[in-house]
Structures are given as structure tokens and as C-alpha cells.
Specification:
Largest sheet: 6 strands, mixed
Low-confidence stretches: 262-270, 423-453
Strand order of the largest sheet: 6-7-8-3-9-10
CATH superfamily of the largest domain: P-loop containing nucleotide triphosphate hydrolases
CATH class of the largest domain: Alpha Beta
Number of domains: 2
Number of strands: 18
Radius of gyration: 30 Å
Helix content: 25-40%
Length: 453
């Protein structure tokens, strides 16, 4: 069984009358890769500073490899625990190699010079972090990302068993953030270094860390695997935000999307009923924009796995739900026709069409009537989205020829709805007249004609 590297029991840390940590208990096994997360003021930095002996606990015990941390000499702790702080500013004109060499101090006697083994360790630390070519450069002249690499090289030169990272990516560009965490992950996997990192970006944390400790209100709210800790409920409690947690299709790790609001929208003036056909990622920005404009569109048909379906369910929109991996059957086609006929405006997003969802266009063509308005959102020409051998394009052109309007940009579609829909009298006749008037005077967005009349 893997041994326990760090054990924290009933840890309480006070700054005068202020309590930074309150009765925190957990343990970390050797070789773990732990993300310490939580809102500002939750106690992340205080916990790391206590483990590194920069702070003294007000109550509780910490054990490093079974030994009372407070009773271990600081020099000995420095051989086992290295720290990469958030602030990596260095004001003295040391060379990169001199800063990295400072990591060997805990292993040397007073006034002792580095030996051959020490120089090999220093060179290897610079090679691993990719800063060998900077060895003679002054650290004060380095970029933030380069300086961060120097600090982690110094930490590696200590040959630690535990590496503490205090918001290491807070001041780095996204490319440096990823490179830094990839390096930390490599050290964990190839060298068995235990990593404990306070980190704000939940998606980066989910990509690189195996275990999570979520602090909230100076206590542990949740501890465990990403799937156990990064839940919508925990995120709501700790951060006060609603979130959707999904698997990233590229690497399979969890991905957290924070959603503004709480899934409900205040009642506003009456709006014409809008139905948005189909779904997919292309539809979500359109649905979000319609909600922001005060509309409550119906959606579908969609499967539960569709991102548009998840959006609709979260915001309590009417949605037709298909079985997984199923085309639109006769029964669902009839349901779709009914939903379209209830709407005053039907919006067709700029989505791909295959044989599985071709019936959505057929439903629009079938249900069109003098009292209905159809808006075609065409970010991409339909010919490039037709995977039905031209059938989708034929239906699309037929719908346009029967009076549908084409919009190239979302802002124009929303502006049109805002200007033409009379909130006091939103009936289909009024909307239809407004559409016909708009079509006659704004040829640049109607009927596929891109030239101003």
C-alpha cells in the first residue's frame, strides 16, 4: 500500500482574531497530484504556508512521513518539501544558474561549495525546465514565464518529495500555464513527486490533477476524485455560481462551464412565441441571445446528449426529446409540427443537415402558413452544411422562396426582432406585416440577396 506523505489533523490557523483555517483534516498519499481549490479567502494559501512551516498552527497536528512537522528541523524539511510561490519576483541581480543552485543549500553544510553531484543536479533541473540556455542570464531580465521556470528549477534542485505550488499559473499566459502544469504532471508521474497546488482555474485543474480538496468558508467542503468534488452542487455552494459539468470530448477530462444567472428569467413584456429547430453547439449562442433579449423559445427535436437539449432543460424551455441516436420518427415529427404551429416565429439555426435531422426542415416547409414568420440564420451557406446529397439545400431554397428571411449575423436577427415585434400587440398578423415590410426595404438580408436594393 502506498504510504502517507502528509497527514493534517484538526488544523486551525488564526491571524489574530481572524480564523484562516478551521478544523481541517485530510491526508495525502505519496505520489499524489492534488489540486487545492476554493474561492478567495477559503484558506488555500494559509494551508500551503502551514505545511511549509511559514505559519504555525493555532491548533492541530501535521505529520510528514509519520513525523510531527513542528519537530522536524527546518533544514531537513527543506530537503523534503519545496515551494513555488505565487510571487516569483527576484530583486537581486543573480544569474539563472545561481538561483537554481540555491535549491542545493539544504543539502550543504555551512560555507560548503557545491560538489560534482550538486552541479549535476542543478544542470538536470535546468534541463528539465528548459532553461539551460538562460543559465548566465540575469533573472531580473527574464519574462514572467521564464522566471517561473527558474523558480521551479530551484525547487527541483532541492530533490523534494513534496512540491507545493501556490497559484503557480496566476500571472502566466495560457501557453505558459499549460506548459507549467504539464511539467508538474511529468515530475509527478516520472519521479513520484507529490504535488499539492492551489489553483483557481477549475478546467486546468481538472485536466492535470487526480485528487481535489475543495475549501469553502475555511473548512473542507469536499475531497476526492474530480467526479466527486467538481459537481454543480459543490460549485454552487463554494462559488455561488451555477455550472454545467461535462466531459471534454478532446481529452475526456471534466469541463466546467459557469452559467450566469440561476436558470430562471424575470417576467418581462409579452414576446412573440419563437421556436428554434434542431440543436448542436451552433444553436446554443442563438438560444442564449434570445433569452437575453427576453424571449422564451421552444427547441427541438433533440436527443438528451445534445448541448442544445442541456441548455433548454437548464433554462426550463419547452423541448422535444428524441431517444439517443434516433432519427425523427413519425410520432416526433407530428409533435414538432404542433410546436411549430404554436409559434409565431420559427428560427432555423446555421446547423448541419443529415438524414437524421432532415425532417426538421421538412416540418418547417410543411407547417409554413401566412400567419407564420420563418427566419433563416445563415452564418454558413447551406450548401456547405448539406450532408443529404442536396436534399437539404432544395428544402432550404423552397422555404426561402415561400417568404423566409435570411440573416447573416446574429446581431441583425436580434435587431430585427427587437425593432419589428410590438410588445403590446405581438400577434402573428402584426409580426407577419412587419416581416413583409422589412423584406421589402432591407434586401441585403432577405431572400439570399446580399446586395443592397
Amino acid at each position: 500500500m502506498v504510504g502517507v506523505n502528509l497527514q493534517v489533523l484538526d488544523l486551525t490557523v488564526n491571524y489574530g482574531a481572524y480564523t484562516a483555517l478551521d478544523a481541517v483534516t485530510f491526508s495525502v498519499e505519496k505520489g499524489s497530484c492534488v489540486a487545492l481549490i476554493g474561492p478567495n479567502g477559503a484558506g488555500k494559501s494559509s494551508l500551503l504556508r502551514t505545511v511549509s512551516r511559514l505559519l504555525k498552527p493555532s491548533r492541530g497536528l501535521l505529520y510528514l512521513d509519520g513525523r510531527d512537522l513542528q519537530k522536524i528541523p527546518l533544514r531537513e524539511i527543506s530537503r523534503s518539501v519545496a515551494v513555488v510561490p505565487q510571487d516569483t519576483a527576484i530583486d537581486f541581480d543573480f544569474s539563472v544558474e545561481e538561483v537554481v543552485a540555491m535549491g542545493r543549500y539544504p543539502h550543504l553544510q555551512r560555507f560548503q561549495k557545491e560538489g560534482r553531484k550538486d552541479r549535476e543536479i542543478i544542470a538536470e533541473a535546468m534541463q528539465i525546465t528548459g532553461i539551460t540556455h538562460l543559465a548566465s542570464r540575469s533573472v531580473v531580465n527574464l519574462s514572467g514565464g521564464e522566471r517561473q521556470r527558474v523558480i521551479i528549477a530551484r525547487a527541483l534542485a532541492q530533490e523534494p518529495e513534496i512540491l507545493l505550488l501556490d497559484e503557480p499559473t496566476a500571472n502566466l499566459d495560457i501557453n505558459y500555464q499549460v506548459e507549467f502544469l504539464e511539467l508538474a504532471r511529468t515530475l509527478n508521474r516520472e519521479r513520484g513527486v507529490t504535488i499539492i497546488a492551489a489553483i483557481h482555474d477549475l478546467n486546468l485543474a481538472a485536466q492535470f490533477f487526480d485528487c481535489f480538496i475543495l475549501l469553502n468558508d475555511r473548512k473542507i467542503l469536499s475531497l476526492g476524485r474530480p467526479e466527486e468534488v467538481l459537481t454543480p452542487q459543490n460549485i454552487r455552494i463554494a462559488y455561488g455560481m451555477e455550472a454545467v459539468v461535462q466531459r471534454n470530448p478532446l481529452h475526456g477530462k471534466l469541463h466546467i462551464t459557469v452559467i450566469k444567472g440561476n436558470g430562471t428569467h424575470p417576467e418581462g413584456p409579452a414576446r412573440p412565441g419563437i421556436h428554434v429547430i434542431g440543436g448542436g453547439e451552433e444553436t446554443v449562442p442563438l438560444l442564449d441571445a434570445l433569452l437575453e433579449a427576453g424571449y422564451r423559445p421552444s427547441v427541438g427535436p433533440l436527443t438528451r446528449e445534445d448541448s442544445g437539449h442541456r441548455f433548454a432543460v437548464y433554462h426550463a424551455l419547452r423541448v422535444i426529446t428524441l431517444p439517443p441516436f434516433s432519427p425523427v420518427s413519425d410520432s416526433f415529427h407530428r409533435q414538432h409540427l404542433e410546436l411549430i404551429k404554436e409559434a409565431q416565429v420559427v428560427v432555423v439555426p446555421s446547423i448541419p443537415f443529415g438524414m437524421g435531422n432532415l425532417r426538421n426542415l421538412e416540418a418547417v416547409q410543411e407547417a409554413m402558413s401566412p400567419g407564420m414568420s420563418v427566419l433563416l440564420f445563415e452564418e454558413t451557406p447551406v450548401a456547405q452544411r448539406d450532408y443529404c446529397g442536396g436534399k437539404a439545400q432544395l428544402l432550404y431554397e423552397s422555404i426561402k422562396n415561400r417568404g423566409a428571411l435570411v440573416f447573416r449575423e446574429l446581431k441583425d436577427l436580434l435587431s430585427f426582432l427587437r425593432e419589428q415585434a410590438n410588445p403590446a400587440s405581438p400577434g402573428p398578423v402584426y409580426i407577419r406585416k412587419a416581416l413583409l415590410s422589412h423584406k421589402a426595404s432591407h434586401n441585403l438580408i432577405s431572400g439570399g440577396n446580399c446586395n443592397a436594393g
